[in-house]
Amino acid sequence: MAADQGVAEQQQTTRMMLDIISLEGPLFQGEVHFVAAPGRQGELGVLPRHAPLLTELVPGDVHCDLPGGERLHFYVNGGILEVQPHHVSILSDLAVRAADLDEAAAMEAKRQAEEQLATRRADLDYGLIESQLAEAVARLRTLERMRRAGQRN
After folding, report:
1. Residue 5: is its pLDDT beyond 80?
2. Do 14 and 81 belong together in one domain?
3. Domain containing 128 — which CATH number?
4. Closest of 16, 88, 17 to residue 48, by C-alpha
5. Could you report the per-residue pLDDT of 44-93, keeping only the tens digit for each?
6. Which CATH number do you get for residue 63?
7. 35 and 81 share one domain
8. pLDDT tens across 79-134, in order?
9. How far apart are CA 64 and CA 95, in angstroms?
10. What are the DSSP calls for the chain, one per residue?
11. Does a structural domain hold residue 23?
């Protein structure tokens, strides 16, 4: 009994629950050892027993390390990160597995946004175009990070 309690206590200090939820519903729910997410001030890494935190996310790569050693990559278009000592929640309008991103569509969106920014027309919403460009670049970076890690997820 004491040995079981010791194992449970050790797991509690090395693992935490992660929920990634988009408008379409839950994308991922499970135990992880580590989570990294794109915060407004830069990438934020979270380990079990992290101090409580609530922060805004920007478009980019969320990755997590599973207990078996596998690393999963996801793309979020922004959102909110809530950290509790043994639970991390990511709420985003759009969240997808990195492997499901359409690289050709992201490259085309980037090209179109850059082209529109170069035209300097008064009738364009440059804030919106810059936002679209930032999202396209973030999608491409997420794919690149996944490739560099040798992952397919």
Report:
1. no
2. yes
3. 1.20.5
4. 16
5. 999 999 999 999 999 999 999 999 889 999 999 999 999 999 999 999 99
6. 2.60.15.10
7. yes
8. 999 999 999 999 999 999 988 877 888 888 888 888 888 887 777 787 888 888 88
9. 14
10. -HHHHHHHHHHHHH-EEEEEEETTEEEEEEEESEEEEEETTEEEEE-TTPPPEEEEEEEEEEEEE-TTS-EEEEEEEEEEEEEETTEEEEE-S-EEEGGG--HHHHHHHHHHHHHHHHH--TTS-HHHHHHHHHHHHHHHHHHHHHHHTT---
11. yes
Q: Do you know the residue count of the chain?
A: 153
Residue 143's pLDDT band, with cuts at 50, 70 and 90, is confident
Examine residue 52 and state whether it is found in any structural domain, yes or no: yes
- Residue 111, domain extent: 101-148
What does the DSSP 8-state code read for residue 99? G
